[in-house]
Write a structure and sequence with these properties.
The strands form two sheets. Strands 1-7-6-5-4-2-3 form a seven-stranded mixed beta sheet, with helices on both faces. Strand 4, helix 6 and strand 5 form a beta-alpha-beta unit. It has 14 helices and twelve strands. By secondary structure, it is an alpha/beta fold. It folds into two domains: 243 residues, Aspartate Aminotransferase, domain 2; 132 residues, Alpha-Beta Complex (Aspartate Aminotransferase, domain 1). The structure holds ligand P1T. Ligand P1T binds next to helix 3 and helix 4.
Length: 386
């Protein structure tokens, strides 16, 4: 691809995928399943030697993902939590990790259980106020970890403010931003000062709820080199077939995200108007406390909404016909779930309740079905749960 082609979808379709790269000129990147590659002599190989260390399809996907993020290096992993394992392996015994207080339940559980075993300490703080971050920094803090918007409360964290004040304070702290909820189509954390962007590619990036995968993207060569080493040495690699699927999913990321945005805003506005709904969280609603920051920091929002229900939550979830009751998010299909019992059940109860993750908090992943059908489905379930 020439350097002039800079449109998002042009990059998604062409970056690192010129048919000139392979002798048969296939337009769709070839899926190579081979786990090993012939060598001319011992340790004399071309691009690949063994499938865990690298393979053609993974290289295509990583090149495309780096281009979409406007980043230099992308390293993929067998899941989002695999990426988390690798990134936190940059820490040493005795280091401290400071994390946002509202995170995906699995990430929270990882921090509270797996880091301790390695002698790494951690604390959580509400990062919606940048001064909280600075006040919580300890002499041994080596990493700051945040999601924005947060899962499941859709709180926003000002990435640039956090990055600027961290760097003016201490240069050696690695700022990690989980961009799973918005993707590089709506938010570019590296441009705002993050050192590493982490993804669960299982969500919007793949977009079809049929692959579990994660990625780390960075402009820092030293960090990339170490993450690449962990990817291979720890063996947390994605399969060539899954890489093919995610690369294919990226082709429609722009179209899907536009439709997720349109549908989620329509559903959010409808929810706000319904008497059975207490409060709605969607950053592009003017009622969102950080709506101004959303307009400044992002170019749109995905299909993620959470809201407090006044009625019976089990009845509401049972009545839904088009929305499926299931964990996960970011696929073309609409999903609904109850974070307190599902995605965030692993968070200690006191922490969950202090955050406001009660049994009345419902999370929606609004898909790309027809807008009117989604609203009609929500309406009949709300009407029935009063
Ligand atoms: O599931 P996995 O690919 O390992 O990704 C973990 C992960 C990381 N970061 C965020 C923001 C996430 O939402 C997730 C996974 N989340 C769900 C499965 C969920 O339903 O919220």
């Amino acid at each position: 691809m020439t350097s002039k082609a800079e449109g998002f979808s042009t990059k998604a379709i062409h970056a690192g995928q010129s048919p000139l790269q392979w002798s048969h000129r296939a337009v769709v990147p070839p899926l190579v399943m081979s786990t090993t590659f012939q060598q001319d002599g011992p340790a004399e190989f071309k691009d690949f030697d063994y499938g865990r260390s690298g393979n053609p399809m993974r290289k295509v996907l990583e090149t495309c993902l780096a281009a979409l993020e406007d980043g230099e290096h992308c390293i993929t992993f067998s899941s989002g939590l695999g990426a988390t394992t690798s990134i936190t392996s940059l820490l040493e015994t005795g280091d401290h990790l400071l994390a946002g207080d509202d995170l995906y339940g699995g990430t929270n559980r990882f921090i509270q259980n797996c880091l301790k075993k390695q002698g790494i300490t951690y604390s959580f703080t509400d990062m919606t106020k940048v001064e909280n971050v600075i006040n919580a920094i300890q002499p041994n803090t080596k990493m700051v970890w945040l999601e924005t918007p947060t899962n499941p409360l859709m709180k926003l964290i000002n990435i640039k403010d956090v990055a600027d004040s961290l760097k003016s304070h201490r240069q050696d702290i690695i700022l990690v931003v989980d961009n799973t909820f918005l993707t590089c189509y709506f938010q570019k954390p590296l441009e705002l000062g993050a050192d590493i962007v982490i993804y669960s590619l299982s969500k919007y990036m793949n977009g079809h709820s049929d692959v579990i995968m994660g990625a780390a993207i960075t402009n820092k060569h030293d960090l990339a080199k170490r993450l690449r080493f962990f990817q291979n040495a720890m063996g947390i690699v994605p399969s060539p077939f899954d890489c093919f699927m995610v690369n294919r999913g990226l082709k429609t990321l722009e179209l899907r995200m536009q439709q997720h945005m349109k549908n989620s805003l329509a559903v959010a506005k409808f929810l706000e108007s319904h008497p059975c709904v207490e409060r709605v969280f969607h950053p592009y609603l003017p009622s969102h406390p950080q709506h101004e920051l959303a307009l400044k920091q992002t170019t749109g929002h995905s299909g993620m909404i959470s809201f407090y229900l006044k009625g019976d939550e089990r009845k509401f979830l049972k009545e839904l016909k088009i929305f499926t009751l299931a964990e996960s998010l970011g696929g073309y299909e609409s999903l609904a779930e109850l974070p307190s019992l599902m995605t965030h059940a692993s968070i200690p109860e006191d922490m969950r309740l202090a955050l406001g993750i009660t049994d009345k908090l419902i999370r929606l992943s609004v898909g790309i079905e027809t807008e009117q059908d989604l609203i009609a489905d929500i309406k009949q379930a709300l009407d029935a749960c009063q």
